[in-house]
Specification:
- The structure is a single chain.
- The protein has four helices and no strands.
- It is mainly α and 136 residues long.
- It starts with a helix and ends with a helix.
């Protein structure tokens, strides 16, 4: 019974992270789409939301490499990529929401930079999550 509860809690946690990633993708897509007119399609919104959901589902809370005394100097690439990717993705989502709420209109280059940073962050999360699960 205890194992079933733990598995259910883990699935709920992963689904919550995926929903948070989808929401972040929606915020970024809303800002970028409102600035770059070619990206106002429903397909773009869907791709941004799906990439966020997949990135946050895979890239956050990946199984860490066990610590051993002999490996103290090594860096866990998956852990670092996951952390950097999560930071980039959430930073762009935060900036997008702030720009939308404050009704600012920065230069279109900012929207492009937000888009590139979002894609990089989500890509890092996906790669980190896949790599961490492969070594498991």
């Amino acid at each position: 019974m205890r194992r079933a509860v733990r598995k259910t809690a883990h699935v709920l946690e992963r689904c919550g992270l995926a929903l948070a990633g989808a929401a972040c993708g929606l915020f970024v897509a809303a800002y970028v789409g409102s600035t770059i007119s070619g990206l106002t399609t429903q397909g773009f919104l869907l791709v941004m939301m799906l990439s966020g959901a997949i990135g946050f589902y895979l890239g956050i809370d990946e199984p860490p490499t066990p610590f051993h005394e002999g490996y103290a100097g090594e860096i866990d690439a998956a852990e670092f990529l996951s952390a950097a990717g999560t930071f980039c993705a959430t930073l762009t989502a935060f900036a997008s929401v702030a720009i939308i709420i404050l009704r600012e209109s920065p230069h279109a280059a900012w929207a492009f930079a937000v888009l590139v940073l979002w894609v990089a962050g989500v890509a890092m999360q996906i790669v980190a999550g896949a790599a961490a699960r492969r070594r498991k």
